[in-house]
Every structure is written in C-alpha cells, then in structure tokens.
Amino acid sequence: MLVEFNHWPTQLENYYRQRGYWIDKPLYDIPDRHRNSDQLALISQNKQYSYRQFNQRIDNLASNIKKRKLELGQTALVQLGNVAEFYIVFFALLKIGIVPLNALFKHQRTELRAYAQQIKPSLLIADRNHPAFSRDDFINELKILCPTLQHIMLVNHENSQDNLIHLIEAGNDNCVATPTEATEVAFFQLSGGSTGTPKLIPRTHNDYYYSIRASVDICHFTSTTRYLCALPAAHNYPMSSPGALGVFYAGGLVVMADNPSPVTCFPFIHDHQITVTSLVPPAVSLWLEAVKQYGHNRMLSSLTLLQVGGAHLSEIIARRIKPELGCQLQQVFGMAEGLVNYTRLDDSEEICCTTQGRPISPDDEVWVADIKGNKLPFGEAGRLMTRGPYTFRGYYLNPQYNQHVFDENGFYCSGDIITQTAQGYITVVGREKDQINRGGEKIAAEEIENILLQHPMIIHTALIPINDPLLGEKSCAYIVSREPIKPEQLRRFLREQGIADYKIPDKVKVVNQLPLTAVGKVDKRALRTQLYIDQQIKGEIE
Ligand code: J2J
Q1: CB of 336 closer than 6 A to ligand 1?
Q2: What pLDDT score was predicted for residue 541?
Q3: Phi, psi values for residue 114, rounded to 5°
Q4: I want to staple 210 with a disulfide (CB 3.0 to 4.6 A). Which of 21, 331, 422, 506 is the partner?
C-alpha cells in the first residue's frame, strides 16, 4: 500500500519535469552516486565513514530489514539524535521503500504517540538512551496503539537481534533497491504546527530531491564542502537547505555535533576545518559573545559561510557576523512544507543583512495576500501565499485543515506575514499563525493549551509569545484556575504528560479571567499587548 497524499495537478507535474526539476530519481540516489568513492562522507562521535563505507552500511541495514518482510510503502517511526546512524537509517529505509518519519530527539511520549497514531508504523527505530525508550513500557503501549508495529530496532540496546548497530555492521552484500516511485511519498516531514494535533508533511522523492539539488547550486556546495551539522539532524533545515543531504549529493563531508553551542562547535570547526554550518539566531548571539569574550575567531578561520534561519535574525546581529566571525552570512527562510528562500552568495551586504532572501526556484510562485485573499502590491505587508515544484499540496490525511490553509488554486498560506520586493526578496515581518517560535523551535499554542486543560484545576488557558532578548520569543501561559496553582505544579504536570521540554511554558501567569473578543474567543492580541507593556515597564525589553 502506498502512502496517500495530495498530488500536484498533472499539468504542473509535466511542467516540472520538462523544466528539469523533477528527475524521477529516488532519494537514496544521493549517497549512492558516490558508492565507489573513498572520500570521507561522515564523521560522528568516534566513527567515520568514506562514501564506500557509508553505502555499505546502508546496504547492510537495508538487507537486514528486508529479511523481516516489510512491504513497500509501510512506514517507520524513527527517533535518533545527531549520530551517523540517523542518515544510514534514512537512506536504508528509502532504498527499500519504507517511509520514515523522523521525530526530533527532544520529542517525548505525547509527540511520538501522535505521530504513531497517524502513520501506523510497522517499524520503530529508537534509542534506549531516550527517556521514552529506556524501558519497554512505552514500546508496548505503541504496539497496542498500532497493531501494525511488529519490528523494533534500538541503539544502545543489549539484545543483539534488535540492536541497530549490529544490523548496520552485519553483512557485506549489495542490497537490491526497491524504493517507492519517485512520484510517491519518500518520507514524512514534521510541521511546526499551529493547531492541537501535530501535522505531517508528505514529501515525495521528486520534490525533495529538486530542492536539495537547487540548494546545492545556490550555496555552491562541492566535494570540498565540510559541513557541521549542529542543529537537530531530523529538522528540514540542516537536512535539506542544502544541509547534510546537499553535502552528500555534492560528495562533501558531514561532521555531526550534539548542539550548536560555541563550546561544542568551535573545536569541531577547528579540528575538521569546517567550511560551512547552519545556525538559528540565538546560537549566533552565543557565538558572537564567545568570540568577543575569548577572541576565539582564530578557531573559525576555515569557516567561509554561516547560514542563519529558522527564526527572525535582527539586522544588528546580522551586520556583526562578517566583521566578528570572519565569514559570510546567508539568511535562510524556509519551512518543512516546502518553500525555501536564500540570500545569494553574490548579493550585497544590504540584502544579506536586511532580507530573508528569495525563493530557490524561478517556478516558486510567491505572492502576498491581504486579509480577503487579494494580491497586494510589492512592499506591502501581508500573508505569504505559495505553490511550486517542492511545496506540498496538503498535510497528511487532513482534508479539513487543508481546506483552511490552501486557496482554491493550490496556494499554501504559511501563516507568515511578509513583504516582497519586485526582485522577489522577502522580509518576514510577523506571523499570523498561533505559534511560538522559541529560537527556531516551534510551539503550536493550541497543542499546549489542550494539554493544560486536562489539568483538573484549570478552567481556561492561553499560550502566547513573550519577547526574549536571546531566543527572540519564549512562551507564557495565562491560566484561569479553580484554586490557586503554582507555576512549578503546572510545569511538573506538563512534564508528566511527556512533552518536549522546549514546549513547557517559560512563564506562567495566573489571572481571574482572560480578555475575550467580540465573538467570545480569547483575545490573544490584547494579552500580547498587555505582556509587552508589562515587559517594557519592568525594563525587560527596549
Ligand atoms: C523568520 N522566520 C523564519 C527566518 C523560518 C530552512 C530554514 C528554516 C526552516 C524552518 C526550514 C525564518 N526568519 N529566516 O524548514 O528548510 C519561521 C517561519 C516559517 C517557519 C517554518 C528550512 N525561517 N522561519 O524553520 O518548518 O514562520 O522550518 O513559516 O521549522 O519558521 O518552520 P520550520
């Protein structure tokens, strides 16, 4: 059974093929193109693989999974951190037509349960060192939730039969590839979300492969590129913009780091002569601070390009990057749903520091809509609307929500408020979606509100962003409760529900009532204004 998804109209599919965007090749081709190369592909912890060795590991795992008689189009829930196995698993599954969903390592039981419920996986690949998988109880719960779940493979696991490392290392055969068709879903990407349930984005081989190849061109990645992957490997940005997959396509080297802090990254950059990496804005601030305090910029001398994206980068910080870190800045404004914008390497300083770039493809259609869906002239702020050769056509099995976020011509409304110049350069000026962007980590307000409402004392709640000098935004939960409740009790309650730590509200405000709009909904705008004024009075923001 193939994974269902919303196809592009045939006419557009033909056009994308004719333009050379869709090349009808499966994504496992990315490392496979270099299968006879002895150049280094991947360094992670104490392991390193040449392209030949990398492909051998992929083949070993693919053959070992094949022996378990999984069928084409079945799905896998995968949760691995920034380790070499992440890519080995990804390409092995693609090679044999199993469709993975890569959960972020920070995700806990609530998120994992929601993903499993949607994709009904046949295979689970996870890490015994993750709190959800340290014992078998959650695995058993998932098996009950999804009777399809028959196969479990774990890293840091003593049982050799299900030990992922053993399955990767054992064998020496070529695996015959049986991928899904390039027009079909290759894997699920995760949406940042703005509603109660986490949304899944089906990405096809054709559309994803195009975004990677075109990104490699734009960012000038070659076989001499040495890329540090310090953001979560499963995230769309370090995976495909051009990310690790772009590096593998070009035949370069990916070095894995655990996190983007200067303490972790600077020695890696120095020791491995890293040439490019991707960061979110809060990490840039920490890097600038580290260089200022300790004069570490000598450690960064090999770094020529620093990509920054995922959240708003202030112009002031942007302008400090070149003089203080000694490398070029490239802004990246992308989304797991598809559309990615880059400032180009030959753009002026002004463009690189004040815009979030322009779309990858000449056939990315981007326009700005007013509240009624009418097109606005260049320079006016409004809703970002887009469709194109690598922008999805619908969330997985969610026709109702899709109707809400797509217009009748298949344009996706991302919830971002932007301005666009006549040359296509985009500046993100705000957001309409009910989401908090905590330094690049996205929190769907409704998801947390729904969990809070399960607390017996809570009557009413609203989660809203609060300005933060380092992260850009943090989250603040307004609570109306039956009896007095302490912030720590609430946080403990949320942790017990098993949600990612970054979603736990940074601030909790207990109030007697919440302001309502004329139709009786919580007036989040009024709350935000009030919070903003409070912060100003306290001198927390300028
Ligand atoms: C302001 N907001 C931004 C930016 C993303 C490359 C880069 C980032 C992502 C990503 C990605 C922003 N300035 N430079 O997938 O391939 C906010 C917008 C956007 C949302 C998407 C990639 N870059 N954003 O961040 O799916 O609100 O993807 O709609 O996690 O992040 O989030 P996500």
Answers
A1: yes
A2: 63
A3: -65, -40
A4: 21
